[in-house]
Design a protein that fits this description.
β5, α5 and β6 form a beta-alpha-beta unit. The longest helix has 25 residues. About 45% of the residues lie in helices and about 15% in strands. α1 crosses α8. It is built from eight helices and seven strands. The chain is an alpha/beta fold.
């Protein structure tokens, strides 16, 4: 039997990149999947169609995770459709590259609204609605340990997510809900390539002990493990899925 049969997963930012790979992986393990998207309904529906080909149920739900009302609606609609939520994957996120002297208040507010506020209030909804024994999987980044210029706002958001994860794990442990955070290294996605030259991309790939960029499946496989019963004794942890990137 597939390990996630009869489970319901809500994956934010699931229309492309790592989120898409996670949605497909959880579905291949038997979970019904809610494919959240912010604006690209066509891409989200393509993911739903691929999941349905696996013989698994899926729906696409629009929602801007920077808005608490949208997050609440995502959970309500998920429960209306599937009756429960077992797995929350807080994958939605944005990035920009600017030295601290060039970061505007608008830049700061936008990146914190999506990366931190979105994760925080999705965890709040999960605390209220997630089934006992459920899973919350948040996303940070290995860049929090890499000291890279122009990443100051981004790593500030991801550091916040790491600390949030530890506290929520403690709060929800009594219900056997595990809460972990994944910190990918450089992973070959559209978001990763945005604003980088090929020279920069190759340099980052070379920083990994395994000598390559991560692929979306590398990340999705670890999410699927954390969502499974095999990871029942792992909580409050930051797992660096980065091929040995310093």
């Amino acid at each position: 039997m597939a390990p996630l049969v009869e489970k319901v997963a809500l994956v934010t930012g699931a229309s492309r990149g790592i989120g898409r790979a996670i949605a497909l992986k959880l579905a291949s393990n038997g979970a019904s999947v809610v494919v959240n998207y912010a604006g690209n309904v066509d891409k989200a529906q393509e993911v739903v169609t691929e999941i349905e080909k696996l013989g698994v149920q899926a729906i696409a739900l629009q929602g801007d995770v920077s808005k608490v009302a949208d997050i609440q609606r995502l959970f309500q609609q998920t429960i209306e459709r599937f009756g429960k939520v077992d797995i929350l994957v807080n994958n939605a996120g944005v990035i920009f590259y600017k030295p601290i002297t060039e970061v505007t208040e608008e830049d700061f507010d936008k990146i914190f609204a999506i990366n931190v506020k979105g994760t925080y209030f999705a965890c709040q909804q999960a605390a209220q609605h997630l089934a006992d024994g459920g899973r919350i999987i948040n996303f940070s980044s290995s860049t929090t340990a890499m000291i890279l210029p122009t990443y100051s706002a981004y790593v500030a958001t991801k550091g916040a997510v790491e600390q949030l994860t530890r506290v929520v794990a403690k709060e929800l442990g009594g219900r056997n809900i595990t809460v972990n955070v994944i910190s990918p290294g450089p992973t070959d996605t559209e978001l990763f390539r945005q604003g980088k030259t090929e020279e920069q991309i190759n340099r980052l790939a070379g920083m990994a002990a395994l000598g390559r960029l991560g692929q979306v499946q590398d990340i999705a496989d670890v999410v699927a493990f954390l969502a499974s019963d095999e990871a029942r004794w792992i909580t409050g942890q930051n797992i660096r899925v980065n091929g040995g990137t310093a």
